[in-house]
Amino acid sequence: MNDYCKKAIAELEEHLYFISLEADNTIQQAEIAVNAILQSIEKVKKQILKKGFKSQQEEIHFFKVLKPKFVSKLIYYHTIYNFETRKPNAGNKALQKFISNELESLKRFFDNNLEFYKYYRTGSCFLDHQYFIRGNIDIKLNIDSLYFETDKDFSTTHDFKVAKILANDLIQVYLESKLTKKQTTSKNIPLIEIPTHHPLKWTENKNALIELIYGLHTQGAFNNGKTEIKDIARYFEKMFGIELGDYYRSYLELRSRKISKTKFIDTLRDNLNQRMCAQDE
Questions:
Q1: In this structure, which of 144, 247, 263, 273 has its CB flanked by the most CB atoms within 10 Å?
Q2: Residues 160 and 211 in one domain
Q3: CA distance 140 to 138
Q4: Would you say the C-alpha torsion 58, 64, 66, 68 has a positive or negative sign?
Q5: pTM for this structure?
Q6: Claim to verify: residue 146 and residue 96 sit in the same structural domain
Q7: Is the domain of 134 the same as that of 229?
Q8: Is 201 part of a structural domain of the chain?
Q9: First to last CA, the chain
Q10: Considering the domain boundaries, does residue 188 fall inside one?
Q11: 40, 71 Cβ separation under 8 angstroms
């Protein structure tokens, strides 16, 4: 079960990354991301309720480690959506006060949950059987009232608190960057980094990628066609961890092909059409 969840997390992170590339602004990105995360959580929930866990340790690992990864993303994007749609447009002072209040809210959560922060941050496990096993309720362990409104078959007393801790770390970075004016507009603010623990690897040859880059540049697919080819090439090099070398010379070689100048793009189109036709049958 945990292997299934790890795969689901990887797929979700990849999906969120592509959402960050396609969305027009931060608000749209957050809105689309929330819907994607909810769908992912629902799929995982169905699997959990259907198959259950092999042991208590597997259950603890899911609610302490895996589920919070999903829910923390939901909290994060929902918070950013609320921030961007509620922030004042009355000048820098009003905005800074608004951000300071949001940061103060994070601090209050930290202060109110200091003991659990210490337990979680130090990697303690002696109370895991109470915190992360379903149905174990001890109100002396600082249980949020939100727990009593959750689905008890898919929640423990403290899995949401872990998710909140993870989300607050990201939210704090986002708010502080706004406060220090490192980011000046809500447009094109990246809400997610390129995944590093399971990076995408380009496994076609370099000429195929260069062909794709030139095709996207010709189409004007980035920034309404105002992005230079060198900037697109650098971005793809960074994203895939690949050195394209003298891509212009490679492009000239593509142009000199006798049979198909766009071999990769043609194959890409044909394979996608075949996939769509097969799924329509």
A1: 247
A2: no
A3: 5
A4: positive
A5: 0.64
A6: yes
A7: no
A8: no
A9: 32
A10: no
A11: no
How many domains, in total, are found in the chain?
Answer: 2
The one-character DSSP state at 260 is -
- Residue 32 CB partners (closer than 8 Å, separation 6+): 19, 23
- Beta-carbon contacts of 3 under 8 Å, excluding residues fewer than 6 positions away, are none
Residue 46 and residue 129 share a domain: yes
Q: What was the pLDDT predicted at 147?
A: 66
**175-192, pLDDT tens digit by residue?**
888 876 544 444 444 555
Structure tokens at 32: 């689309």
Domain check: are 39 and 120 in the same one? yes
Name, in order, each residue with C-beta under 8 angstroms of 45's C-beta and a sequence gap of 6 or more: 151, 154
Q: What is the pLDDT of residues 52-106, one digit of tens each?
A: 899 999 999 999 999 999 999 999 999 999 999 999 887 788 888 999 999 999 9
Would you tell me how many other CB atoms lie within 10 Å of the CB of residue 228? 11
Distances (CA, A) of 135 to 140, 154, 190, 196: 15, 10, 39, 36
Residue 156 and residue 218 in one domain: no
| Encoded tokens for 127 | 């109370």
- 154 and 240 both lie in a single domain: no
Q: Count other Cβ atoms within 10 Å, centred on residue 88.
A: 12
The amino acid sitting at 168 is: N
CB 73 within 8 A of CB 12: yes
Residue 233 belongs to domain spanning: 206-280
Q: Which two tokens stand for residue 132?
A: 């992360």
Residue 125: inside a domain, yes or no?
yes
Alpha helices in 63-135 (DSSP H): 67-86, 92-112, 114-121, 128-131
Low pLDDT (below 50) residues in the chain = 182-189
Which has the closest alpha carbon to 147: 139, 73, 60? Answer: 139
